[in-house]
Every structure is written in structure tokens, then in C-alpha cells.
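Hi everyone, sorry if this is the wrong subforum. Our group has a chain we'd like a structural model of before ordering constructs, and none of us has done structure prediction before. Sequence below.
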Amino acid sequence: MPGKFDDLRISTFVISDPNIRPSKILSLLENEGIIYRRVSPIFLEHYPVEFNSKRSQVLSKKRLSLSEIGCASAHLSCYLKFLESGDDYALIFEDDAHLIDSNIDSLYELTRNFLAFKKATFKRESIALLYYSESANVIQANEYFYKIVGNASHAMAYLINRLSAMELLKKNAHFDYVADWPKGTGIKFFLPKIKLFEHGSKKGFVESFIELGRLDNTLNFQSKIIQNLKIIFFVTYFKNISFFSGITDYIKILWIPIFQWQYFRVFSKLFPNSKIKKIIRD
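Answer:
Right subforum, don't worry. Here is the predicted structure as C-alpha cells:
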């Protein structure tokens, strides 16, 4: 249906290069007559001038590859274009987002319900709706949505408002993070109760651009323990104090996330009937 999202004041973006490989979400939007802006994935040969490898390794707790920084750059480009528009929200797809059964009507209705749900607060809150999340700790927000408690995982299809876009641009000005969600942004994340999207690579038709150049950043168990102990006892903070706006910033970005995962794991076992539950989607 032409103009399906026109009434919602949404800028739609697809990070894709059809000259390199086809994208099903791109084709779907075109077939439905939905206006979108295509942003090309960014393939870097050198690290950006703004990038500080030590700072990034401290904040993201791993060494980022050129592919990961290129992916983050493409998302930041979407945010800039969105803020230049007069729209209230940005709907952003990576090219490997697979809409189950190509059900654009369900996507539209879900999006419309979310905007109605957050209408009263969207101008004063940083909010995001993740149409897909591999796993999340959640509590019920209303009959259609969960609110994510703790960290949000990578999402190849999501909706953000203007305040969130500004916060993400500010937080990742030096490309310290991949295209996931930087810690300490204050963004409130939500997740649909129904599963609308699957990861394209799991459907066998596409591999994420970011996977093409991702380094093996996995630390062994001993290294992780040492790294976390340095964070817990503020060794990391005092050795890298210039990387943080203050101790509160450090606590939000590095200190709290260490405890959140274990907290929710223990909490769910101690209180199996609690309102917080874990969602895992393949």
C-alpha cells in the first residue's frame, strides 16, 4: 500500500548496497511503495582520525575491527539524515533484516501501537523499539510490548526518536562502539511481544556486512576475570580517567553492566514468579 508509513512521521532507512548483494527488506519496501532512504554500508581501509584505539578498547572492552567501525558509521549517518528531516522517528533496517512472511501490515500496526503507547512522552524521553533482539531481560510494559531491563542487544531493525538519535551521535562521536547500544545513554528500550523479524543469515540468504571483517575478540576466562576485577576496583577508571566525563559515567558504562547479567540470572532463579523474565529468540 503506497504511503503505508506516511501518516506516522517516520524516516525510513535501509543500510544496503544492492550492487554488492540483494536485500529482501529493500525489495519488500519497494514493492509496498514505502518511501525510504538507502544508506550504503561503509567499508574502511583505515581507522578514522577521531578513533582512539585505547579509548575504544577500554569503553567497549574489546578491539574493534574496521568492519565494525564501518557499520557504526553507517548507523550514525542514518541518525544525522534523520535529524535533518522533520520527522519524529527513524525506522532503520540493516540489509539482513528478514521480516517474517513479509508481513508489512503487522509491522505497520505494531509501529502505530508503539507510537500511540509512547505519544505522551516521546518528546522528553530517549526511547527505542527493537523489532528484533536475540535475548533480553524484560518486564511487561503493556499488552503489546516488553520493556527491556538492563542491556539491549544488537538489533538489525529498530525505531528511535530524535532524542535517542542525538544521544547516540554524542556517545559514539569517536567511534568507540560498534552499532550496538553504547552504555550509559539513558535510552529506554522496548521489545514487541510478537516475533516479527529473523536474522537474514539464519534464513541462509545473506551474511551481515559486519561479519565479513569482524575480528575474533573473544577473551579467555582468565583475561575476562582480570579485566572485570580492574573495573570493579576502579583501576580502569583511574588509569583512563580522561576517557570518562566523571565517575558516574564510568559506573554506567563499565561498572554496572558487570553485575547486571549475574543479577538477573540469580534473581530469576530466586524469584521464578517475578515480573522480570528472559526472552530468547532464535
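For your construct planning: The chain has one domain: 6-216+272-280. The chain has a mean pLDDT of 85.
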